[in-house]
Amino acid sequence: MIPSNITRHHVLDAIREIDRDGIPPARESRDFQLIFQGRNYPPKYVVSLANRFVNGKELDASEFITHEANRFIQRQGFEVVKARRPGQTIKPSSILKRPVSQTNFAHDERCPECKKTIEAMLRKTYGVVKSNYKFEISARIEDYKAFACYLDLQEVFTALQNHRGYQSFVRAMTLPHCDFFIPNPGFVLEFDESQHFTIPRRLSLAHYPDSLKVGFAKESWGRLCEQIQAKDRDPPFRDEQRAWYDTLRDFLPAIKGLHPTVRLYPKEMQWCSLDPKDTNDVQRFRRLIEVRRANPKGDFVATVVLQSNGVATNNTERRKALLEIIEKVVRETDKDGIILFPGGYYSAGKGKADPLFDFVEKQIGEALRKIERDIVVCLGIDGRVRKYAKDQIAIAVGKNGVRAIGRKFHYAPQERGHIELATNHLSKESGYSRIFDFNGNQYFLAACYDSFGIRQKLIPNPGVDVILDFIHGFHLKGEGGSGDVYFAKHGLAGAAKQWKCPAFGAAVFFNRDIPQNWPSGIYWNQGNRSTRSWRYKDNPVKAARSVSCSIPEGKALIRIYDLTDCLQVQ
After folding, report:
1. DSSP state of 404
2. In the chain, where does the domain assigned CATH 3.60.110.10 lie?
3. pLDDT, tens digit, for every residue of 187-246?
4. Which of 80, 98, 7, 10 has its CA nearest to residue 43?
5. For the segment 308-344, what is each residue's pLDDT rounded down to a tens digit?
6. pTM (two decimals)
7. Architecture of domain 300-565 in CATH?
8. How many CB atoms lie within 10 A of CB 74?
9. Which of 83, 141, 434, 521 lies in disulfide reach of 445, CB 3.0 to 4.6 Å?
10. How many CA atoms lie within 13 A of 83 on its CB side?
């Protein structure tokens, strides 16, 4: 019998693994083939592999029959066909003969399935969705003279005219179609591919009035325009024209009384990896859209990476440094957000970590209550539950107290038998979950090697939007615990790959400089490529800004990431 918890998402994972590794001769199918994107796959073997991605092991072929596999695959929306003639094998030679390096793909923004998936997710979330929807409103500036928004539109239009001197770039009588219109509650959603991110578009955004509500971060879209600088010269004024039409779509709330226009960027995530039949995927998608509608400015995640120069430090000095770092971050951004410190930032010495919870809650809470915005500070506390057993805890604290606590659930190789582990990745600690909600996003506390556990145990994403990893530290090369590259590739990147969400990490570099290219924020956009071949240059996440400051033990490097644009590619 085929387990019912296997979804289309897991079947796609199995297909990608076959693309990478090929098909064992004994598992080729002689009678039926699954057809996907012009390639052929053996249905039973696909189902067997798919089971590993959700249940942890390959399903024995003797546990189900071929016709059961075929029906199951078809219910997931895939095509299954008979072989060309009885007994003939349709070998997927295009896959088997292709070098592995060519089958390890990076997802492309032109993927035709992404837009289809977004439409399916919108229907699952809101019900009725009208794609390629036409509003019968004018595209011409002179027709808005009677509207309250006319002067604001005129300012944008004039700026576009003056940019390169094109005066007559509007050729349509009415606004071209919108990507999606969601009648209830009543808003437009646009899927902006790279051609939308131009210098004229950045110019138009800069002239929007503060009173105009939009469902995306204008600053992030402006930065993308600066980075991509797409150009379309057919006709010569096409960039101004597209920027004007996008402006009118953004002004639909003022023109038609709609809710703010929401915009998505193809490279924010691999949209086609979402499964409309998966409850967790649907919940994540709903949160993403609703957060963008309610909080378009977005939140930040600040990672605090320390350079410790061998100077002895204690909790008092660490507390002083922590408060100074909080003040520095608050000065650098006007958003709500998360400040992430390394694992073991505070030490309980030979005692358990629990007694420090009240200390951390009081000291951090007092500091945060002085700040008007909503900030959550996350850090690690180390102690010992018994003589040889380490106690490693991650804790999140806001101005109103503890938000989440998580005990380490996956040990590092050298820790086996020397650490007290949580029962699993969802176990509560002192009555608290390790997952907490912040402005609509779900954050997961991973204590150091927990990020490896997410990938190695093939743990399904429990509805998490962001992973926060409290890494202990890296030493000089040749000394124990020097694997900063290994951790980034297989820990942070591995977890981001498994859960298809950003993973952020903070760590301490002992007696060595902080590598400037070490990524403390990672998002996986490399399809089913192995983490072994992943390189820092493949990482699309870029910090919006970086600052550093001196602390008693050395230096703190603070990277501030804007969540709404942390996935953009330069």
Report:
1. E
2. 300-565
3. 999 999 989 999 999 999 999 998 999 999 888 899 889 989 999 888 899 999 999 999
4. 80
5. 987 767 898 999 999 999 999 999 988 899 999 999 9
6. 0.66
7. 4-Layer Sandwich (3.60)
8. 13
9. 434
10. 16
